[in-house]
Amino acid sequence: MDTTAPDGTVDIARAARLAGVSSRTLRHYDSIGLLAPAWTGDDGRRHYGQAELLRLQHILVLRELGASLDTIGAIVDADDPAVTIAHLRDHLTGLTAERDRYARLAATVARTIDSLEKGTTMTTEQILDGFEHRRYEPEARERWGDHAVDQSNERWAGLGKEGQQRHLDAHREIVEALGAAIRVGFAPDSAEVQEIVAQHYAWVSLFWTPTAETYRGLTQMYVDDERFRRNYDEVAPGAAALLRDAAAVYAEREL
Q1: What kind of fold does domain 135-255 have according to CATH?
Q2: What is the pLDDT of residues 46-89, one digit of tens each?
Q3: Among 136, 203, 125, which residue's Cα sits nearest to residue 169?
Q4: Contact present, 59 and 84 (Cβ < 8 Å)
Q5: Under a CB-based contact definition with an 8 Å cutoff, are residues 205 and 148 in contact?
Q6: What pTM was computed for the model?
Q7: Which H helix or E strand runs over 61?
Q8: What is the C-alpha separation between 241 and 219, in angstroms, rounded?
Q9: Which fold has domain 10-67?
Q10: Which residues pair with 46 in a beta bridge?
Q11: What ranges do the domains of the chain cover?
Q12: Is the dihedral of CA 35, 40, 46, 47 positive or negative?
């Protein structure tokens, strides 16, 4: 049950619901020093006032712009407006590129409708125009460095169109397998789920070979980042968390 305290603060459940994030996300933000509550009750429940909610708004806007948590922390803690403006300008460039990509996608869909209605044929390039795997590249470069991203891009290009589609299909099968495991009730350390994680690790390793630490960090990001969590949880709520928990077991046993 979410409540508003007499002092006007809201508890973590209501703050999470209003912001469209999970309580786990808010607890994580607190644990890394990004967003502390106004106060914490004797029962451990966090409460947020107007100042904290305004800070949360700033954080969520920056997340939508694709900023990493480290970058967000630097921005929201900066007293110098010039620092904030410089960061926002960088992300505006990324947003503009994303806007242009969506315009291309819209044009592709329009051409497809026209082609189907008129019975004409589209080239492979026309059919797939606007579909790119690099939408998170600026953030990836910030997280893992230019070398890792450049190497990943080279390997992706080397797959060719058919190989790229097979890779995307393989990931979809992993997501669906996680959803099935959630519905059946398999535990993270079960043989069935560990097999799925092994497939996921192999899928990731086609471009970049994570260590135990970086693999745990990657799967934690799948839970913390709303964009990635939706991708996994669309099949069954909790799929991203299951992958993270199972990855921790896998990393300890195998890496």
Answers
A1: Globin-like (1.10.490)
A2: 999 988 998 898 888 788 766 778 888 888 887 677 776 776 67
A3: 203
A4: no
A5: no
A6: 0.47
A7: helix 50-64
A8: 8
A9: Multidrug-efflux Transporter Regulator; Chain: A; Domain 2 (1.10.1660)
A10: 40
A11: 10-67, 78-132, 135-255
A12: negative
